[in-house]
């Protein structure tokens, strides 16, 4: 209650400037005397502001400490339950507006020295893979953000939204809740203790406001996707190689003789040569990786089609010959 009253003028100004803010909207604050006890209450908007209700609800902070619960009916799931899922928003303008709103709101909360907030994400799976009537997903202006209810897709088989792959039509309910916890001295002490214990293994929740806001924005932004155009394996293979070479994580593609992998029979080739050989022969590409605690050599499968077994056996000989011809 104290935090809400202190930040009320800035809170009101934030909503006046950014009407599509995803922050929960407080409509009242009360203190009730119950015998000798005083109970403080706040009234806020419903995170699921339409007649449609979610089938599953997630509480997402962008942390990993104690962020898994056993899935069962009626339980709010957490970050690690959502690890293999995305928020698929097909409309590029809506996606940009959503990410911009999260950025603005997290910056605002950082300025208030608030942390421990989260995204309340509800997912409604559409029956018959068709969206419900507009009346079922319409929200009242001013009561909730215009971005609180969005049409989307959830991919069925992978954590990427590709236009030609199967995906379930869903309705997303999105809001930022629990926005009144300031980074107090008690939280600072908890952060110090956890940093030297759980912090070695997890992203802890008791983080300073600036770091919490940055991590929160980055984590949520990484989950929001629009449709990607389909690529064949050759295009993906070439793109990964090209990006690796440009970034310097892959100094150069090399081929190695699979019969004698420990020998110095390694040949540098151009990107075009590597892709051409991998496509024609289903060969194994060995790339040098740089970086702390990474393997120096990493083998990348160009073809993953197990039906090409007999072809791959012949490729081993071809690969060896290819190395000898280039050396």
Structure description:
The protein has two domains: 2-225, 2-Layer Sandwich (Phosphatidylinositol Phosphate Kinase Iibeta, Chain: A, domain 2); 233-326, no CATH class. Residues 260-266 and 287-327 have low confidence and may be disordered. The termini are far apart. The protein has helices at 2-17, 92-111, 185-195, 209-223, 233-247, 271-281, 309-326; strands spanning 26-34, 37-44, 56-60, 87-88, 118-125, 149-155, 167-177, 224-225, 253-256, 266-268, 284-288, 297-301. The protein has seven helices and twelve strands. It is of the alpha+beta class and 327 residues long. A four-stranded antiparallel β-sheet has the order 3-5-7-6, with no helix packed on it.
Strand portion? 15-25%
- Write the CATH architecture name of the largest domain: 2-Layer Sandwich
Number of strands: 12
Q: What would you call the shape?
A: globular
CATH topology of the largest domain: Phosphatidylinositol Phosphate Kinase Iibeta, Chain: A, domain 2
Low-pLDDT parts are 260-266, 287-327
Structural class by secondary-structure content: alpha+beta
| Percent in helix | 25-40%
User: Mean of residue pLDDT?
Assistant: 76
| The CATH C-level class name of the largest domain | Alpha Beta
Rg from Cα? 26 Å
Task: Estimate nothing, just give the exact number of structural domains.
Answer: 2
Query: How far apart lie the N and C ends?
Result: 74 Å
> For the largest beta sheet, what order do the strands appear in spatially?
3-5-7-6
Series of H and E elements = HEEEEHEEEHHEHEEHEEH
Number of helices: 7
CATH homologous group name of the largest domain: 2-Layer Sandwich
């Amino acid at each position: 209650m104290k935090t809400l009253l202190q930040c009320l003028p800035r809170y009101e100004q934030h909503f006046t400037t950014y009407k599509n803010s995803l922050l929960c909207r407080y409509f009242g604050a009360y203190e009730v005397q119950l015998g000798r006890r005083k109970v403080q209450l706040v009234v806020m908007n419903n995170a699921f502001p339409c007649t449609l209700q979610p089938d599953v609800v997630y509480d997402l902070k962008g942390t990993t400490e104690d962020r898994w619960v056993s899935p069962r009916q009626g339980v709010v799931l957490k970050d690690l339950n959502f690890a293999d899922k995305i928020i698929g928003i097909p409309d590029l303008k809506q996606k940009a507006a959503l990410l911009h709103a999260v950025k603005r709101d997290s910056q605002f909360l950082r300025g208030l020295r608030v942390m421990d907030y989260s995204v309340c994400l509800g997912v409604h799976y559409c029956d018959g893979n068709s969206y419900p009537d507009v009346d079922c997903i319409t929200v009242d202006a001013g009561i909730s953000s215009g971005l609180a209810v969005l049409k989307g897709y959830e991919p069925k088989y992978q954590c990427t939204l590709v236009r030609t792959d199967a995906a379930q039509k869903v309705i997303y309910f999105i809001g930022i809740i629990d926005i009144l916890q300031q980074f107090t001295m008690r939280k600072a002490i908890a952060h110090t203790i956890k940093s030297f214990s759980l912090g070695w293994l997890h992203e802890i929740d008791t983080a300073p406001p600036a770091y919490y806001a940055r991590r929160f924005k980055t984590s949520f932004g990484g989950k929001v996707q629009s449709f990607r155009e389909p690529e064949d394996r050759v295009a993906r293979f070439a793109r990964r190689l090209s990006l690796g070479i440009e970034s310097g994580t892959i100094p150069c593609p090399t081929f190695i003789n699979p019969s004698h992998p420990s020998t110095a029979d390694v040949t540098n080739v151009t990107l075009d040569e590597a892709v051409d050989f991998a496509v024609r022969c289903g060969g194994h590409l060995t790339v040098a990786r740089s970086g702390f605690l990474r393997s120096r050599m990493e083998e990348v499968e160009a073809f993953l089609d197990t039906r090409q077994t007999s072809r791959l056996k012949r490729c081993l000989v071809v690969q060896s010959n290819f190395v000898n011809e280039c050396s």
